[in-house]
């Protein structure tokens, strides 16, 4: 049986025995989605790629701690999100200024899936989301794009439930206002 036709559980069993072909197959199946997840939080393609690769290394080295192999995708995504948030918080503490705020940069659309790129509305919303305050942008990305609920966002962003609801509400309102201004 070709490795591309193997189900995820068989591939993960092979990965646990350090089978590099199985690891490559897992990587090929998940790398684009995980890169896009990191990019939406980090907003830097090179750092997002680094985070994605580090997350795969973490996942492969800690694969024995995964109890249900059917949840591998969600588990890997959680690792990517946590690594992205950690990097974001570290950069915020160091007061790094993103290059795109200083120098004009031609944006590529790697941050959204190809099938969604066709709609101007999605491009407009993603563009406007980048202009929101960083915590608004992160909150909306985690909630609307990544699909996390308020409790999960509270854990990720290390804020209270009430603050999370307020943050998401204000972020949505800010997004609405900016979209109406650009229309």
From TrEMBL:
Question: What's the domain of life for this entry?
Answer: Bacteria
Q: InterPro entries, alphabetically?
A: RNA_pol_sigma-70-like (IPR039425), RNA_pol_sigma-70_dom (IPR014284), RNA_pol_sigma70_r2 (IPR007627), RNA_pol_sigma70_r4_t2 (IPR013249)
Keywords, sorted A to Z: Sigma factor, Transcription, Transcription regulation
Look up the record and give one Gene Ontology term from the biological process aspect.
DNA-templated transcription initiation
Q: Where is the RNA polymerase sigma-70 region domain?
A: 26-92
Q: Where is the RNA polymerase sigma factor 70 region 4 type domain?
A: 124-175
Pfam families the UniProt entry points to = Sigma70_r2, Sigma70_r4_2
Q: Which GO terms describe its molecular function?
A: DNA binding; sigma factor activity
> Keyword Ligase: yes or no?
no
By its UniProt entry, which PANTHER family does this protein fall under?
RNA POLYMERASE ECF-TYPE SIGMA FACTO, RNA POLYMERASE SIGMA FACTOR
Q: Specify the protein name.
A: RNA polymerase sigma factor
Organism of this sequence:
Winogradskyella luteola
Instruction: Identify the taxonomic lineage of the organism of origin.
Output: Bacteria, Pseudomonadati, Bacteroidota, Flavobacteriia, Flavobacteriales
